[in-house]
Amino acid sequence: MLAGQLARAAAIFNIDEVIVLDDGPKHSHAQVSRAAALLAAILQYQETPQYLRKALIPMHEFYRYCGMLAPLDAPHHLRANEWFECREGVVVDHLEESTTDGTICDIGLETRALVDGPRIPHNTRVTLDVGKERRSVRRNGEDFIHGTIADPLTVRHRTGRYWGYVVRVARDIDELLNGGPFGGYDLTIGTSERGEVNDARSISLPPYEHALVVIGGPQGLEYALSNDECRKEHREPSTLFDRYLNVCPDQGSRTIRTEEAVLLCLMHLKEALLFK
Prior knowledge:
Distance between the termini: 30 Å
Order of helices and strands: HEHHEEEEEEHEHEEHEH
Number of helices: 7
Mean pLDDT: 90
Structural class: alpha/beta
CATH class of the largest domain: Alpha Beta
Number of domains: 2
CATH architecture of the largest domain: 3-Layer(aba) Sandwich
């Protein structure tokens, strides 16, 4: 249920990337904890359009109760009677002809899509540009929708439509701050009850291209830092970030749950950050 609420929050606030920091004691650099893997798996399950899940997500105990979760109903979870210039798909077959190769994709419509060019491996998730108007092509006696490979990270910028989030697991704070599809972040914000207090309307942030907001677990960012090698350089979490904010001062409960903190934080920073 926690993972489902976090996924909903990410979609509501148009988040491009969700990072799960494995903040517990480090026993091996090659593995992450079961808890971190579980959370990341369910977040990815929720982001995947329903018509792709059977092909992309294997049967696993992690997903046993996912049917109980509220769907994201995100814009890229397109329905069968809905047309949009981009669509998520999965590679299901390949086309071989004497003059050209092609990749056949299921994009959640009755008619499958065809991508010309080198083969893409089976069961690969792809983002296709299928055009503002339907473009049909016939090969080997079958009709296809003609599509081309698109970069999912640029669809939102090009079309103005939110296109879901990517999920990754960070084994330590260094991976958290420096990894990911954007090659790092030029604005980092940590959140804590020990951070500076600002009214939401008075928060001033510098220009940025990619911003990262870090929200601690039940024991806060202090716990994450205590289990990390960078504690030698940073004795306080505040020194890790450009800004260190308290988004809910004067709280009436001793603790704020992670799913509550995410919603509070994103709403508090909405005007200053998310829709800048």
